[in-house]
Amino acid sequence: MRSLYPPLEPYDSGWLDMGGGHDVYWERCGNPSGKPAVFLHGGPGGGCTPGHRQLFDPERYNVLLFDQRGCGRSRPYASLEANTTWHLVSDIERFRAMMKVERWLVFGGSWGSALALAYAETHPERVSELVVRGIFTLRRSELLWYYQEGASWLFPDKWNRFLAPIPLDERGDLIAAYHRRLTHPDPAVQVEAARAWSLWEGETITLLPHEGYSAQFGDARYALAFARIENHYFVNNGFLTEGQLLRDASKLAAIPGVIVQGRYDVATPAATAWDLHKAWPGSRLVIVPDAGHAGTEPGIQHYLLEATDAFAGRVA
To answer: Is residue 87 annotated as part of the catalytic site, yes or no?
Structure first.
């Protein structure tokens, strides 16, 4: 089983003014002369971590990572203004121009897979390869499975905690009910809702319990951006038309790509990865038999590293 590349520090970093009041944090890692790639984190609202740098051979890749609008080290924190899928697609293009590259490998997991698809379907000529994990396309059925009824049957104890901030008469639409609290003028109401929303995800994304995720997702500051931004996207259906990312997957036909999916992924069930594989001509689907959703699952990590290694020497 493959393990991550050794820890490394960025060779360059900073903030880019994207307009609308947003300064987006970015960093570049690896070999400045290496194969260009961009890493798209999950959430939306999650932010990048040092471990994300380690998914690429530092001798062969020149990787740009950035904290999407409103999260991580980007400013202003937890902001929902001028924060949509299409703002982020535009941000990716700004970063590509900053890198002075014509095409690059695009890597995204969970929400990052949706953003990678949105970007690649908008700018297919700019994508040399795609590596996506834990496939999420923001169809209404996917959102309802995880935030209304479905996953709740597998985690009734954790679901009970997710329901706790929401009165009985508002539970018919939990995403909308949470939206009212996550945008409430009282910061205490926001934080209570944010922690409940965030912990639901943090404690259901791995095949086995992971104390580190409980601590990370339960941290009030992390949870505030994660929950507010994620819910903002979901209450707006990702700023996409229903089924858009799968409908337009034919635009990826000329892009080599690998789809890595955990068999027991509760957050983004394997049916969506299967649908994408069928809609994306030439894609390769790997279903990891002993994994949930998180990118840190050993089997998922193994196949992601195999994918980036396989594409490292490929000339677009």
So the answer is: no
134-186 pLDDT, tens digit per residue, is 999 999 999 999 999 999 999 999 999 999 999 999 999 999 999 999 999 99
| Known catalytic residue at 152 | no
The residue annotated as part of the active site, out of 128, 265, 277, 283, is 265
CATH number of 12-139+239-312: 3.40.50.1820
Direct distance between the N- and C-terminal alpha carbons of the chain, in angstroms, rounded to an integer: 28
How many Cα atoms sit within 13 Å of 307 on the Cβ side?
Answer: 27
Q: Where in the chain is the domain with CATH 3.40.50.1820?
A: 12-139+239-312
Catalytic status, residue 3: no
254 CB-contact burial (10 Å; exposed 0-12 / middle 13-18 / buried 19+) = exposed
Of the residues 52, 87, 210, 293, only one is catalytic, namely 293
pTM over 0.85: yes
Bridge partner residues of 109 (DSSP) = 133
From the candidates 52, 67, 87, 110, give the one annotated as an active-site residue.
110
